[in-house]
Task: inverse folding
């Protein structure tokens, strides 16, 4: 089955731009979606598909993809963006399974 | 308001069973594929199982195949996860989530996403 790989931790200075990446073979066939999770809360969708934001998600969040890598970019990171971020896609082996990345802990300094 | 509410978690001994429920409201439940995703304490999200809209097709992660059964009652707008032969490593918060799919017109690439998620229910397997 497919796997998605994320850096365990990333930090960014307040107001700066940060990119969180997700790598995996399935991303050559599927766009990723991205979720934000704060401590003690359920995940929240922030980006889906090529670069779609659900209503209520600030436009400082954006997505992109190239080859086997998907990226979530936060332009002008805010203190409230400190959270865990997960990517996901369908498994590319055709078994209709789903795969999540291991998550990236974002610290806003 | 589109909402998912899980229930049924708790403390169970190794080898025991538990049934989780996920009550859906605010959308046409019978039109969507539904999933269970779990998160062990301090760990990441792990996909567990999915069921198609009419319940005729299911899939499971290898770690739970043969022990867990996903089902749904579209008349009651409720998703279930029957968990048997529970192990310590099944200890986690279990989330239900609604899946949607689409594809990018220009590239043809498909994609899926989960929204909303329930608040989660904690399952603890311990003696």
Result:
């Amino acid at each position: 089955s497919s796997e998605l790989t994320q850096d365990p931790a990333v930090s960014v200075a307040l107001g700066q731009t940060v990119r969180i990446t997700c790598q995996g073979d399935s991303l050559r066939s599927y766009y990723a979606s991205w979720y934000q999770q704060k401590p003690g809360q359920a995940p929240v969708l922030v980006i889906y598909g090529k670069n779609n934001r659900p209503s209520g998600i600030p436009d400082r969040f954006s997505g992109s993809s190239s080859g086997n890598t998907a990226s979530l970019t936060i332009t002008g990171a805010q203190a409230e963006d400190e959270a865990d971020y997960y990517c996901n896609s369908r498994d590319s082996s055709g078994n209709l399974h789903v795969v999540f990345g291991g998550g990236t802990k974002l610290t806003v300094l | 308001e589109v909402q998912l509410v899980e229930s049924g978690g708790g403390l169970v001994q190794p080898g025991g069973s538990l049934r989780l429920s996920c009550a859906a409201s605010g959308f046409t439940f019978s039109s969507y594929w539904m999933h269970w995703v779990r998160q062990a304490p301090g760990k990441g999200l792990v996909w567990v199982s999915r069921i198609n809209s009419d319940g005729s097709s299911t899939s499971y992660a290898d770690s739970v195949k043969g022990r867990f059964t996903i089902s749904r009652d579209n008349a009651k707008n409720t998703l279930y996860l029957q968990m048997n032969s529970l192990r310590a490593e099944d200890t986690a918060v279990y989330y239900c989530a609604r899946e949607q799919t689409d594809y990018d017109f220009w590239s043809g690439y498909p994609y899926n996403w989960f929204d909303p998620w329930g608040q989660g229910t904690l399952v603890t397997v311990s003696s």
